[in-house]
Model the fold of this input.
Amino acid sequence: MEVPAQLRMIIFGTFLLYTAILLGIGVYSQRSMQKVALANYVDEFYTAGRGMGALVVALMIAAGLCSAGTFLGGPGLGYAVGLAWALAGFSQVFMNFCVLGEVGKKIGIVARRIKAQSYLDILVYRYERNPVVALLGVFSLVVFMGAYVTSQFVGGARLFESMTGFPYWLGLVLFSVVVLIYAAFGGMKGVSLAVIVQGLVMTIAVFVLFFAAMGRLMPLEAAIRKIGQLDPKLISPWTWKPEYEFSMWVVFGLVTLGLPHGVLPTLTYKNTKAMRSAIVLGTVFVVLWTLMLIWMGNLTRALIPNLKVPDHAIPSLAMMVLPPWLTGVVLAGVAGAIQSTVGAMILVISAAIVRDAYLAFINPKATAQQLKSVTQITTVAICAVVFLAALNPPKALEWVIVFAIGGLASSYFFPMLLGLYWWRANEYGAIAGMVGGLVTYMLIKGKILPALAFGMDPIVPSIVVSGLLVVVVSLLTPQPSKRVVLTYFGKGVPEER
Amino acid sequence: MKDVASRNYDIRDIEIDPRFKIAYKEMLLTFGVWFLFMIVSLVVAYTLGKGPVDQYTYVLGMPAWWFGAIVVTLFFAVIVIYISQFVFTDVELTDEPTQSPTARNRNK
Done:
């Protein structure tokens, strides 16, 4: 992108202001955590005492799941592939309803019974604290989410570099150090406060951009016809065969339960009234963000027909139709989307390591002080590793990313869903389902057995395999323990209440 | 007494927490609504989107199929909001210390 020098400074300035606000939140939440009683530290760190209200829960889910994909990649594909892709984007708009409606209540009750601090806690306890389940879980989260977090920062830093002209490492520092501070030192408190600011900035950015762009595009019909003349495939749903479109809906709308950072807020909401309000708020946000952004990606074609890098559609559009300081707000909006996702993912990874590896196997008798130290060290270490990896992205990163989100979803979706609602699912079924789903996904996506896809995204056959394995293997092995069934389906284990 | 580590009990002896029954039904409803949303969206989009692109009908400046997809989404948004406010119920998330936890159906 060609960005004149004057513009760059102003964009940089606005972005810096946004970053400063987040830094303030980081400092505030860190101080708040300092005051927490030692015995409660870990609970407060990962679930903030389970007292989150509707707005925060809504935004944690919405902004947690909407990342660079919704702001850059998605519109980029709307630009390059067309409205067939944009149509698939609609599948994600009810994510709050899906997460909260499908598992919100169940997890809300179970989490309080077993004092769960993480997504993995719910899964591991359900499957008899089986070490293989735990280690598979920790490993896949650390590797795939870690890679995803790293690539999000790389993307953000690169964008910063092209929009402001400042060096990559500076962008990386501004994007990531802030997150490190409020996530590593503020925990869930920091992440949830930040998400309010980020949600606000994201919303302003989207609205401002949408209306400015529409103003420039009027009359709309002429603009869309123009795009259709560039290439009719850009404005027709038939660019993608119905079965492929269907599979994209599965990817973006159905398997949300398999994404730990999206389900994380179910551990933190205050009561079911807040949960129901979060559905309303979240729906409004995500419908507007998704609709406006993805459509704008496609509409950019009418104004900028020959962009070399489709991911630059939104930033280029912003620079074309907005004054520089508002372009800075759009950059902040992109940053917000990335940081909110990353913040939630860092907490998921950290909780998995601290609770499901350290506390479960390495030091089950850890004292409160030890837990506190390990929590802080682990979270800081994750951030440091991610930062270093993003500074000089290893080639392997690209390779891992390809499998990251799809791989996670294919391995967790059915083990989690069936675990929560089918009493007979057991740890053997879960292991088979997790491994089977992931392996199938990698075989197809890695082009070793592409035919298994039947013309659809690899997620579809992968979750089918995963689901079948959970069911069949569970039925062939002993039923779950009474303790687990009482906890997840019955009225709880009396002496443990 | 109960041996909670046992894997040899009869499932029919286990009393299901009423709140979990509610959660289960709401889960089915949620998936059902989402599937319906998907099917209606795809049917509307792929039917109205048929034919040569240069002969598309335009509504409010956009191709009819795209307009239809947006309308479907907005319609289901209203349904989702309605369900969350008037169909989903509120339950106590903590277990009551004495007897069995009961679900209270109150729409606040």
